[in-house]
Design brief:
With about 525 residues, the chain is α/β, with parallel strands linked by helices. About 45% of the residues lie in helices and about 15% in strands. The protein contains 20 helices and twelve strands. The chain has helices spanning about 100-125, 135-140, 185-195, 210-220, 230-245, 275-290, 295-300, 305-315, 335-345, 350-360, 365-370, 375, 390-400, 410-420, 420-440, 445-455, 460-470, 470-480, 485-500, 510-525, and strands at about 10-15, 20-30, 35, 45, 45-60, 65-75, 85, 155-160, 165-170, 175-185, 200-205, 225. Strands 1, 2, 5, 6 and 7 form a five-stranded mixed beta sheet that branches. A five-stranded mixed beta sheet has the order 10-9-8-11-12, with helices on both faces. Strands 3-4 form a two-stranded antiparallel sheet.
Length: about 525
């Protein structure tokens, strides 16, 4: 048995019963040496009696293991000790008040940390260990948290706990390990934690005024670093507000009118399920409304909403109300004119057309070219995209994207839009100036750039300039230093995953235990060492 159960090497195995569904190992302690008292620690070899302890052990193959261990009960020779007798413990095999071996206890704790209650209980059942979800959670909560070491670089961020309730997560930005979390995101809690754990030199955070005040009150000597991602995200939202304010300029991004193609014929959707549904409702609504019934009466009769009845009643044809899914833009759209030209010249081989498009920069698949020219083989016109003006969000994404990462399609449309709208062009130039500061990690032009924002005549940019000027030192550090809140964001993603695994029913203490312990457990079994964040 020692080669199968090496932790039994310190005891004498008397017999092994493998006839039933559980492997029963009967053993006894063979050492007669004095054992330390569990109360005062005084060694004693004065035997009082023996009794049998039954310990669950890790499964052997596909069968559970039960160890029946005969241990000594000893007298305590220290008269001042409150204990009269005590049970001896076998190192590596028994733990006081525990009916599982340390090996099985590690498996139970790991299952609780990784999978929580129900998931851990199911996993243990696969390993022939039957425990309830409540027992798994109680064993998890009994595990002590690792000793908290005050970090030199601290990451602070918040996340949604449930509904409108938020929580704060603290991360060691050097080791990338979570330190603690608590419910709420007020400045007093953060400042109290910083006063209780002095030694923090750098704090990475977002643009939250609450955290800014808490750090200033709890660790006034610490350098605050505003995260680059949040700075860029805040600027992108202001650009979107500018695009929304100049929505009337957005159609200028479309190609000239002569490039537009008329909409497909009305009967294109006649044989689709949406077309049949629209025709059926259109006929039923008009039949009832022409008989003099009100919209509310027709809605009750057909089981529809009154606004739906009104829409169908006011339509002249069923084609006006048929649902047409919006056509998504394709990477083939800029090359459709070339496909039509080559088809008219007599080239009808999809493989050759695909090879010609690849020489012009097309990176799509051959199958898309084959499907695009399929209408031409049936004598139908080539399906041309129906252009729509870009949305304010899409426009902001065009402006904030790096010029090298914009496609040809986006570049042409953005160029037309910026030529038409000087406000968006000014916003684009300011965005590119800030992007250059981030790329070069040079915050020297920041004061003059903030002045340009304030005098740009664009209220959204003037508003963000005021906010950045109030937090200019942290913004300076965020641009010029290598520290950021990327570690915080990654840990918060993991926190949300653990929270959803527990179906949102776990309290903050259990969530804190799992988040901290699971990170250390992963680090212990990591396949590669963790490097310093860049």
């Amino acid at each position: 048995m020692p080669y199968l159960l090496p932790h039994l090497a310190g005891v004498s195995v008397l017999s092994v019963d493998a006839s039933g569904p559980v492997v029963v190992v009967r053993a006894r302690t063979r050492s007669l040496a004095p054992a330390p008292c569990t109360g005062c620690g005084t060694p004693s070899g004065w035997c009082h009696s023996r009794y049998v302890r039954r310990l669950g052990d890790a499964s052997l193959g596909d069968r559970a293991v039960l160890i029946e261990l005969s241990v000594r009960r000893l007298y305590c020779e220290n008269t001042a000790c409150e204990k009269v007798t005590f049970a001896e413990q076998v190192p590596g095999l028994t733990v006081r008040y525990q009916r599982r071996t340390p090996l099985l206890q590690q498996v139970v704790e790991a299952a609780g940390v990784l999978l929580a209650g129900r998931g851990g209980a199911r996993m243990l059942r696969v390993l022939n260990v039957t425990l309830s979800r409540c027992t798994v959670l109680s064993q998890l909560m009994r595990m002590p948290l690792p000793p908290l070491v005050t970090p030199r670089v601290l990451g602070v961020d918040d996340f949604a706990l449930y509904r409108d309730t938020y929580a704060t997560l603290l991360v060691d930005a050097t080791t990338r390990l979570p330190l603690t979390l608590w419910e709420g995101r007020d400045a007093e809690q953060l400042s109290r934690w910083l006063r209780e754990h002095p030694g923090v030199e750098i704090v990475c955070r977002d643009g939250s005024l609450t955290y800014r005040q808490g750090i200033a009150a709890g660790a006034p000597e610490a350098v605050q670093v505003s995260d680059r991602f949040h700075l860029w995200q805040g600027l992108s939202r202001r650009v979107q507000d500018i695009a929304a304010a100049h929505r009337s300029c957005l159609p200028a991004a479309l190609p000239p009118a002569e490039e537009a193609v008329p909409a497909p014929a009305e009967d294109a959707t006649a044989d689709t399920p949406a077309g049949h549904h629209a025709k059926r409702l259109f006929q039923a609504v008009h039949t009832l409304t022409e008989s003099g019934r009100s919209y509310s009466s027709v809605a009750r009769k057909l089981g529809l909403d009154r606004r739906t009845v009104r829409k169908y009643a006011r339509a002249r044809t069923w084609q006006e109300v048929v649902r047409r899914p919006p056509r998504k833009p394709s990477t083939l759209d800029p090359y459709r004119d070339y496909l039509q030209q080559r088809w008219d010249e007599g080239e009808h081989n999809a493989m050759i057309l695909h090879q010609e498009l690849r020489t012009k920069g097309y990176l799509g698949h051959y199958q898309r070219v084959k499907m695009a020219i399929a209408p031409l083989r049936r004598g139908l016109p080539l399906d041309q995209p129906r252009e729509r003006p870009p949305s304010p969000r899409e426009t902001a994404r065009w402006i904030t994207s790096h010029p090298d990462r914009r496609g040809l399609h986006v570049t042409h449309r953005l160029h037309r839009l910026l030529e038409h709208c000087p406000e968006l062009k000014h916003a684009h130039d300011l965005v590119r100036q800030f992007a250059a500061m981030l790329d070069n990690r040079d915050a020297t032009p920041l004061p003059s750039w903030l002045d340009e924002l304030s005098h740009s005549g664009l209220p959204p940019l003037a508003g963000i300039a005021k906010a950045l000027r109030e937090d200019q030192h942290a913004v300076d550090q965020g641009i010029s230093t290598t520290y950021n809140s990327g570690v915080n964001e990654g840990r918060i993603t993991d926190v949300k995953l653990q929270k959803r695994l527990m179906a949102g029913r776990a309290g903050v203490p259990l969530l804190r235990h799992r988040v901290v312990l699971i990170a250390h457990l992963r680090r212990r079994y990591a396949d590669r060492p963790t490097t310093e964040p860049r």
